[in-house]
Amino acid sequence: MQRHDETGGCVAFNEDLSDWDAFLRDWPIERLRSMTLAEYATVGDKRCFTYLVERGLDGYGGMRGGTALKFGIYAHRSGENDEKRQENVTYSANYAWYSRFGGDEESVFQKVRDEVAAIAQAAVKGDFSPVDSSADDGLLWPVFRSKIAFLYQDRSAPRLTAVLSPQSLRRFLGLPANDATPITQLHARVLQQKQAGESLIAFSERVWETAKPPEEGGTFSAASAMDYLSRRFPGSYSGTSHLAAYRTPSGRQLAFDPGSNPAKKIAVQIFVDAVPPFGSALTVTEYPPEKSRNHHLKSHAPALAAGERAFSVNVASAEALTQLCDWYDSEISQTAPSSTSSIVMPINQPLNQILFGPPGTGKTFHTIDKAVAILDPAFYSARNDEREPMKQRFDELTQEGLVRFVTFHQSFSYEDFVEGIRADSEGGSLQYRVEPGVFRSICEDARGSSQIASDIGVREGARIWKISIDGTVTSTTRNYCFNHGEARIGWSEAGDLMNENLSSVPAYAVLGSNDRSSLHGFSREIEPGDVLLCIGSEDKFQAVGVVQGEYEYQASPPAGVRQDYVNVLPVNWLATGLSLDIRPLNDGRKFTLKTVYELSRFGWPELAEYLEAASVSLTKGEHEVAKISQPRVLIIDEINRGNISRIFGELITLIEPSKRKGSVEALEVVLPYSKKKFSVPDNVYLIGTMNTADRSLAGLDIALRRRFVFEEMPPKPNLLGTVDGIDLQKLLTTMNQRIEVLLGRDYLLGHAYFIGIKSVADLKDVFQRQVLPLLQEYFFEDWEKIALVLNDHRKAADHRFLSQPGNDLQALFGKEGVANSNPRWNINTKAFIEPESYLGIYSAAGPAP
Predict the structure, then answer these.
(1) Phi, psi (rounded to 5 degrees) for 29
(2) CA–CA separation, 602 vs 590, rounded Å?
(3) What is the number of other CB atoms lying within 10 angstroms of the CB of residue 309?
(4) What is d(CA 795, CA 842) in angstroms, rounded to the nearest whole number?
């Protein structure tokens, strides 16, 4: 079966080993040691070593594609186009090689030949260390080394699979793209899953199928982008956990932030040095020289760093990435546009909108599309007809803190939405604090997004923690922590705080509640991206840092550190030597004696503003904080079920576009509990949903109506098909026409109830469990009108969903009797399984006799 390999070639996994056997007979180790340059590489010679290994034996491991420089030296056609020649490559009449390898072809080939023979000889002896060597340790590229070692290994006890790309092996094992496990160890772990009796080639094909890259049908992500770029531009990777940078053969740089979980990030912003000619199909943002950006670019892609003109391209698919690289890898000079404005797809979404309609019309469903269109318009434009990627992108944006969700109800209040007072036990006493609600929180995050920057590591929703490192007096331990990027606390007698049986450790069990709380918070609650304030006194802090990683227990602290300070967190100390009062931030309160605890009265936005006002730089000189105005989306489900005046309070005016911060008529208010000034940023989008069956649009709060754009979500019968001869489109259309006449258009049935129906059995479940109960609610159990909607009066008795049993009132009540003012109705369960019952809803047949 043919498969494309990861460098663009075509692989036919071949379980017939005769070609492999023939190769080993023709190319024993002795011949490798004495082969000539012509035997190694000659244009058009299918018997030369490089052709055989790359193409003749690609059924035993694909390595086609890329540049022929992977062979160390390669044969080129005489008169090769000068325009295609690279500056760092030397060309003789018939061969080419990297200039750093030497000045003449024979001396370079001798090095290549020695390396080839050494790899093969080592593989025969079971030594695969050459495969793990870095790309700079020899003349051959890693993929070529792997193929040689694979071919010469002992097939009865294989150490390598025929899947030569380490990225494929990482995908098979579920490892991140930047995992540093040596190649031979990856193969060893993969081979552990080889089944008894399964041939090496068959197993390799299974590994390849499982680890198929996005361009072969896999899911696109930041991890797969790193995978592709590592294969497209081998040996060029440079970066950190916050940046992956690459170079084309001509030296052009490109880079992006893979995020904290590259496998889950399904769109990337790639920095390039010019605007792609197909930029209208993507979101492209210009970065003029003076505009700040990811500071890691300075070290790993300086041509794209601050001080240089660059462009950020949103890429959300393997096809878009390939197209971008095809253009970027070309030798044609690119010319950037003269405009210095950002080239961004417009966000054609109102700041405040409500999706309204009857039940089942997809209002909540469409909030996902609306949110993605606002937060990632390029992804929406490229993938809006693909539901699964759209939902995955929405979940990713939600995980990043860019989307919040809340449901209004009768008990929901201003205190839940904006801010309220909550009781809290801190330092052993009951205290009351102001806690922000969901709306104030998202507004503060949106305002803080111009201050929070990925290059200093503060995460969305970061928690602020107080920490005392060896008290407040001068301390060598604290100085060591500041100088070595650590935060430490003591209690060594408790041992490793991640011990599952910690509570049973005697030294831990005797600690007081504050000490146990400090240890628990330090080891289990503080997360990477949280902020630490190291105290200098009871009312001042002396340092600000961002947590960089997970808790570590270090049984033997280094020299100069208190020997009981065994509990460690990695921290990037942004500023030290401070003496700033905590009380303006902390509602007038000083620090308590507890070693570690969360400072919950303020967040990162307030802290960043406070530090900025105190002229404290968080960027250590050359680092610049990126000014990013990232939008936020708040989805308010069932917005009409809450008391709008009570929930929004005075903020109902501030959500108007013309009253938002930054506008000419911007307003701000003083919040009643916190007494803080507050305004609504212009990058907070409100998306509400409204079920018209709960309350008609006419009865909605007038103040809300004039501040929101309303988009009707009507039923869409055209999305429905036919099931077992029943036309669902006609069925829904006819029922809704009757409901509109009898009750009004606010009470129609949505198409969502009928999406996914594949049989009469499915239709039965929908009618019994959803449609009929909804009609009962609509018509207040007026069964006669429900029967009219179902057209029961014009069906045969067996096909009526509802029926009226005969009433013998005299038998029930005696001779006196009662007026038959409340006739009884029965539900005919047998009718729900008959197709004729549903066909009769939209047919015009007369009543049965």
Answers:
(1) -55, -40
(2) 14
(3) 16
(4) 11
